[in-house]
Specification:
The chain is of the alpha/beta class. It has 13 helices and eleven strands. The strands form two sheets. The chain has a six-stranded antiparallel beta sheet with strand order 4-3-6-1-2-5. 40% of the residues are buried. The structure holds flavin-adenine dinucleotide (FAD) and protoporphyrin IX containing FE. The site of protoporphyrin IX containing FE (HEM) has 25 residues, from helix 3, helix 6 and helix 7.
Length: 390
């Protein structure tokens, strides 16, 4: 049964109340989950200090989705399919729901009423059903994870490695999507990486991975992985793909290893034999960090429809100086374009603002920002934020 407007309003208001305590709430949520249901501890990474708020933030994001059946089925369906790689089973859902409600009750304080409790129970149930159903359907057609052997590993400088893996079974994906990867060095720690090319006939995938400081998975992939090692892949995610029906020109903005999915999209566009123009803007802090520029420039020599421009934000270089959004605003107008943005979240946010000002409607601006898990959002629901700003 769909949620009522009252239930949705109650849930949204309560997320605004607990938002400031999100950190403490995460600690409490995991503490009671692992105490009451010790059997689920093995599903989670040993080190829950980093990115540990992913699950709880995802749970609270329910409030963004409950009154929008299309998004609910889209996001939660995908989430449910993706949860197969974590080893989540139908029997685990009541446990997680119970602990979510207990955590909410504790941090909502006086705001926690029987009506609010019932609204959350209902909302959780709706989402959990969609996720479980999607996971069951998915299990009929594909594995939960793919074992993938590292077949090539090349250091490209500045802590970046190009890593090619070969999955043990056909691995479906579209250019612009990203895969989740688990390494043998950090079991249960899943991170996202984007193949830097359109799908290949030999079923191999090449990732461009930058080792971030103290990074559990990226350091292992860049400095420990060798040919012969086996990593695990979850299913691909992401909607940053080309619409084969569209003939709009493209504007692409890439920061750092955000170049990987942009490169994949350009390769796919070339393969589609498109009759449209593609403008790629590549940004970094220094010229040395302009990752993938030479490769992209070589591609532009082969394809007359491809233009590539660089932006360097922390160095004075004539013709290149500026942040990506600044350089972007000097070109265009792009209001008739389809936009694809990939890289650090600040860059994506600013580029979105620039392109929106130029007149591109939101449904034609596609992005999967790097620094936050795909389904993560601010704890305060969008509507409440907008209202607060008014
Ligand atoms: C949709 C998507 C696609 C992505 N594609 C790629 C890709 O193609 N290539 C790639 O190299 N990375 C990519 N990432 C980032 C990647 O998933 C990891 O977040 C990154 O490798 C860090 O993981 P880690 O385990 O090494 O670091 P963690 O152990 O999780 O974090 C260690 C420290 O680094 C910080 N940190 C985490 N992520 C980043 C980051 N991206 N930049 C700077 N500091 C960070 C954390 O806050 C923490 O302090 C993508 C992320 C998303 C959401
Ligand atoms: C309505 C129910 C649920 C929702 C909305 C939900 C949502 C999420 C989200 C958004 C993430 C982060 C994904 C990512 O960033 O890659 C996540 C991670 C995870 N979820 Fe769920 N989840 C639910 C139920 C469950 C259940 C029942 C289990 C099983 C115990 C589970 C186990 C996990 C695990 C192990 C992770 C990875 C955590 C980490 O890497 O730190 N989830 N969940």
């Amino acid at each position: 049964m769909p949620l009522t407007d009252d239930e949705i309003a109650l849930m949204r208001a309560s997320v605004a109340v607990v938002g400031p305590f999100a950190g403490d709430m995460t600690v409490y949520f995991y503490a009671i989950l692992f105490t009451r249901y010790p059997q689920v501890r093995t599903l989670f990474p040993d080190n829950l200090d980093v990115q540990r708020d992913r699950l709880l933030r995802g749970l609270l994001r329910i409030v963004d989705l409950v009154d929008d059946p299309e998004s609910l089925v889209h996001f939660c369906g995908r989430l449910g399919r993706d949860h197969r790689k974590f080893g989540a089973l139908n029997g685990h859902y009541p446990a997680v729901g119970e602990c979510l409600l207990a955590a909410l009750a504790r941090y909502a304080g006086d705001a926690w009423t029987p009506e609010l409790s019932a609204a959350w129970a209902h909302g959780y149930d709706v989402v959990a059903r969609v996720m479980m159903h999607a996971a069951e359907q998915d299990a009929h057609s594909r594995p939960a994870v793919w074992e993938a052997e590292v077949v090539h590993h090349v250091h490209r400088g500045h802590g970046i490695a190009e890593i090619t893996v070969r999955p043990d079974a056909p691995y479906p994906y579209a250019a612009g999507q990203y895969a989740s990867v688990e390494t043998p060095w950090q079991p249960k720690a899943w991170r996202y990486y984007s193949p830097a090319h359109a799908p290949r006939s030999d079923n191999t995938l090449t990732f461009h991975v930058r080792a971030v400081s103290q990074g559990q998975v990226s350091q292992a992939l860049v400095y420990s992985a060798l040919p012969g090692d086996v990593v695990r892949l979850g299913p691909t995610q992401g909607d940053m793909t080309l619409d084969p029906e569209s003939d709009r020109d493209l504007v692409c903005v890439a920061g750092g290893t955000g170049m990987a999915p942009i490169r994949a999209l350009v390769e796919q566009a070339a393969r589609n034999g498109i009759q449209r123009y593609v403008d790629v803007f590549v940004g970094a802090r220094t010229a040395e960090e302009l990752y993938g520029l030479d490769d992209m420039l070589r591609m532009s020599q082969r394809h007359h429809w491809l233009s590539v421009r660089a932006a360097v934000s922390h160095e004075r270089i004539a013709g290149l100086e500026g942040t990506l959004p600044q350089v972007l605003s000097e070109f265009g107008p792009f209001y008739q374009h389809e936009a694809f943005l990939s890289g650090p979240v600040d860059m994506v946010t600013q580029a979105t603002t620039t392109l929106t000002r130029q007149g591109i409607p939101p449904d034609r601006i596609h992005f999967d920002p790097f620094d936050v898990p795909a389904l993560e959002a601010d704890l305060m629901p969008r509507r409440t934020r907008d209202e607060a700003g008014q």
